[in-house]
Amino acid sequence: MPEIPTTMKALIVKYDGYSGTSEGPAIERLSDWCELSEIEVPKPKGGQVLIKVGLANVNPSDLHYIKGEYGQPRRKGVPAGFEGMGEVVASGEDEAARKLIGQRVAVSASRGGSGVWAQYALTDARAVVPLHPKLRDEDAAALIVNPMTAWAMLDLVKKAGARAFVMTAGASQLGKLMATLSKEMELAAVATIRREEHRSLLEGLGVGTVLNTEREDFEDMLVMAMRQVQPTVLLDAVADSRSADIFAAMPGGARWVIYGKLSPQSPALPSLGQMVFMKKKIEGFWLSDWLATASPEARREAFEKVQERFVSGAWKTDVAAALSLPEAEEKLGEALSGLNRGKVLIRP
Amino acid sequence: MPEIPTTMKALIVKYDGYSGTSEGPAIERLSDWCELSEIEVPKPKGGQVLIKVGLANVNPSDLHYIKGEYGQPRRKGVPAGFEGMGEVVASGEDEAARKLIGQRVAVSASRGGSGVWAQYALTDARAVVPLHPKLRDEDAAALIVNPMTAWAMLDLVKKAGARAFVMTAGASQLGKLMATLSKEMELAAVATIRREEHRSLLEGLGVGTVLNTEREDFEDMLVMAMRQVQPTVLLDAVADSRSADIFAAMPGGARWVIYGKLSPQSPALPSLGQMVFMKKKIEGFWLSDWLATASPEARREAFEKVQERFVSGAWKTDVAAALSLPEAEEKLGEALSGLNRGKVLIRP
């Protein structure tokens, strides 16, 4: 095992706490929110592990966070980055943490740890997942946030007794994962897109109904699709007035499950009739809650199933770019502007 | 038993279906929506019963309905009126219906029947409740919609594991019923009012915290109250931006249960953080659903407990006026304008 240096390069957060704004997950320059610094390599204690980061992911939640618009307050001076992969190189004294040393793992950040947009990251042993030897680094770096969300949300759809669901932002990485998973789980999917060129991609993955929210005939197509497919769960990454239109067109008993906010728009609360007479419900989904409340067995099963799908080739993380830390500071905003072409990763 | 005439006087609905408007439950003149007519007395079949109406209630849902803004389409030419009391004078051939003949009952309208703003009303045997002999006619006429809603919603609060709740429109009849019930059930209540003179009334009924939404210091008082009382269910008859403010100020895990829409305003959907990170939920409550899905035992228990409270004097229906059918056609709008002084009833 190579020696661990005293200092490391990291993209650290520039501000503390919440910004009070609500602009959504878009940035022009990363340097507005993070700066590349040489800081001390953190030391793991107790149940913590230190990971030499191989590849780090960039998710909308990272952008929400560095802008001070996420559900957790920013910690100034601490590296950003919620998700990545690497090798465990040190641990605290706990047995479960020590056992992980030398293992190749997927990493998610934990409270009290430090982010993965850095050469080394500190997290809880419970927040890392040992990897299948055949899993590619690119897939490993994006193993938790999107695939586990896809898994957990379709699990929710199934447990709700639904036979069909709607997903917004269908052409996103998460949308594509849910598309293939829905086919396996025999759930009928309706996906929304904003550009016509994404239609054939989703249809190819098995999505039965693709609706373009930007087309003039959207509302007619929506009403027809909802009548035919009768989806009863809306998995929503956008939460704008289009989402509200979809929810309103869904049959009685429908659930609107909000898990992201790609739009800064605030739609109006649905009408009384929707909530009272049609028994519709609105709720949120947060992977961290799911992971925190799922049983160890359910977690293990989910991680295994998710990795199997990547190893078999059913799932694949499309990568648009892999930037070094200095490159990321300079041109991450630009690289992200073509989000649907694939993931932008950081290679510290 | 007196003979049943062939025709009767009734306030019949003037229009069919939905209006597409959303103005809320206020009317200027009843004659804009209903007209007094001489129509045939309906004949009960199967499980139906015919009631000679003693007193009929006027609820916000009746006004929503006659205006075409309710969850059920209007039926032109059929008497309006969802709730009242009277005597069962005829029945269809079903045993359960026949057993009710001669009984004094509370009535709620049923699909396929006819409303109680008429000398006779047709409904399902399942939609009538035999009355305690000591229950006053005024209390019987308002036995189902408000008292059963109060009972069923506080049952929901209790089953949600909440120790405290918020109710909007606290000075309404329903609010007063929930106030006394919350005291018995040892639930801490926060009530909103719009006029300062209602404060002492609610405090007298045992409401620990009364917030005036029209006062300039409302938002400060709200934040303080939510911190102190930590209510986790919002029982909401208003669904305006004040309700949204209350929901936003409530602790994590809070449920916004909408059961009425006194305001025509549409507030914005709560923020992502509220739904996702704070695990809040929005849903509706409709008594008809509760009655349709509750077990016969749960229904019976609820009706007994509710009647006991009126007989003992713990609950009381305050009556502002009792109008004949011609008087109602002419001046119901006017009589309703002072809603919080008490119920307006119709005596056909």
From TrEMBL, chains A, B:
SMART domains assigned: PKS_ER
Domain Enoyl reductase (ER): 29-346
Family matches, as InterPro entries: ADH-like_N, ER, GroES-like_sf, NAD(P)-bd_dom_sf
Keyword Lyase listed: no
Gene Ontology MF terms in the entry: NADPH binding; oxidoreductase activity, acting on NAD(P)H
UniProt keyword terms in alphabetical order: NADP, Oxidoreductase
One Pfam family matching this protein: ADH_N
PANTHER family in the cross-refs: QUINONE OXIDOREDUCTASE PIG3, QUINONE OXIDOREDUCTASE PIG3-RELATED
Official protein name in the record: Alcohol dehydrogenase catalytic domain-containing protein
Lineage: Bacteria, Pseudomonadati, Pseudomonadota, Alphaproteobacteria, Hyphomicrobiales
